[in-house]
Amino acid sequence: MEAAPRLTVTPPSRRHQAMVIAAIVCFWPLLCGVVAGNGYLRRPPQSTRTYAWLFIDQMGFYMPFLVVTLFVFFLALAQQRRGVSLKNMILVNVAASLGWMAFYSVYAIWWILWHRGADMSQFRQYFTQLHGINSLFDYSIYWYIATAVYAGVLYREAQIRARQAGDLALRTAQLEGLLVKSQLETLKARLQPHFLFNTLNSISSCFRTGENELGLSLLVKLSDLLRHALNQGERRMHPLRAELTFIDLYLDIEAVRFEDRLRIERDFQAEALPVPVPVMILQPIVENAIRHGVSQSLGPALLRLHGVVQAQQLVFAVYNDGPLLEESRMDDGREGIGLRNTVERLEHEYGNKAFFQIENWEARGVVATITLPMTKGEEGADG
After folding, report:
1. What does the alpha-carbon distance between residue 294 and residue 301 come to, in Å, rounded to a whole number?
2. Close Cβ partners of 45 (under 8 Å, ≥ 6 residues apart)
3. Rg (CA), the chain
4. Starting from the edge strand earliest in sequence, which strands make up the sheet with 313-320, in order?
């Protein structure tokens, strides 16, 4: 059976509550003053009733309205905090309105007799004559008040949602701007000049030594790499398998430069491959591992890429068995242009639900880990 809709509005701040309470407390006495003033101006010439008497008379009638307005306001606040269902909200107000009708229909007649000095023995007569009309009016006045209060609550909810939509639009615009900047940094930072220089030098060396096929293969891979980087367009997300296609091109080029020194291991769950990830979010992590780990190793080096889905999260780790990071450089590992952009993009895309960490792995090597929440996201193309 489908659950009833729930009222789950963000509770107002203390300042907002105080302003509403002050408005309620001021409104009803002000209304009493206006009604009393109107009665004073229209009183018969022979009347001896002063404005003060008329004001007190109206206060006696309207002060219960002030109390019931505050009651409805605090009732609405309590229902917001508890997320009361719409059905229960209506039932509570129906019960409250019936209680109000029973109370006020008796109270109003008592006030008329007491304040105007009438004989209390006439109470039954007044009650019999006025009960029907007064009860209907008293019942309806509760719903007028409740409608006004809940209309204010819903209006405030609409304002909050509009503001949140505006904030989301601004955040999206910032993310798109950051993505454009990130794409421009592809050739300036992520594919840094030294990488392009080393690659072109390797290609030139292959042709000089007669390894034409290898040189041509490297040239094709470099062309594919640059085309992949520049052809992302405005795409924000794509499957992990598309991200790995780019990384494979990058590593194929680096493997030629390091020759037999670099051993690459890849281990990815099949469930992880279709998971959407931000475009070019992993390449700076791999490049960082090669620059600060593999290239610093004197002998053979291992680079291990691992991806797994666990607990509704995608965990991607890059391990290299190069030198350990000093404690003072743990945070510095995040400060390069590529990694800094990576951290900023993760924060913009996922808020505090994504994590990026660089740490030493036991006695040898460094591991960088990105943990992303599972989202439906965009599938994008694999190319």
Report:
1. 6
2. none
3. 37
4. 262-268, 301-310, 313-320, 366-373, 355-360
Q: Which of 130, 60, 70 is nearest to 96 (CA)?
A: 70
* Of the candidates 284, 371, 280, 290, the residue with the CA atom closest to the CA atom of residue 336: 284
Phi, psi of 357 (to 5 degrees): -145, 140
Residue whose C-alpha is closest to residue 285's, from 317, 244, 240: 317
- Which three-class secondary structure state does DSSP give residue 362? coil
How many other CB atoms are there within 10 angstroms of residue 64's CB atom? 18
> Measured between alpha carbons, how far is 65 from 145 in angstroms, rounded to an integer?
9
Domains defined along the chain, listed by start: 14-168 (no CATH), 191-373 (3.30.565.10)
Task: Indicate the SS3 state at residue 359.
Answer: strand
Tokens 């080029």 appear where?
253
Question: Smallest Cα–Cα separation from 339: which of 190, 178, 183?
Answer: 190
Which of 228, 243, 297 lies closest to 275 in space, CA to CA? 243
Are 248 and 336 a contacting pair, CB within 8 Å?
A: no
Question: Which residue carries 């963000």 as its tokens?
Answer: 10
* Cβ pair 251, 289 in contact under 8 A: no
Per-residue pLDDT of the chain (383 residues; tens, 9 = 90+): 444 444 444 556 678 778 888 888 898 889 888 888 888 888 888 777 888 888 888 888 788 888 888 888 888 877 767 766 767 778 888 888 888 877 777 777 777 777 666 665 655 555 555 555 555 666 677 888 888 888 877 777 777 777 877 777 777 777 766 665 655 455 444 555 667 777 888 888 888 888 888 888 888 888 888 887 777 666 778 899 999 998 998 898 888 878 788 899 999 999 999 999 988 888 889 988 888 888 888 788 899 999 999 988 999 999 998 888 876 655 544 555 557 778 888 888 888 899 999 888 877 889 999 999 986 444 444 44
Tokens matching residue 365: 């090597």
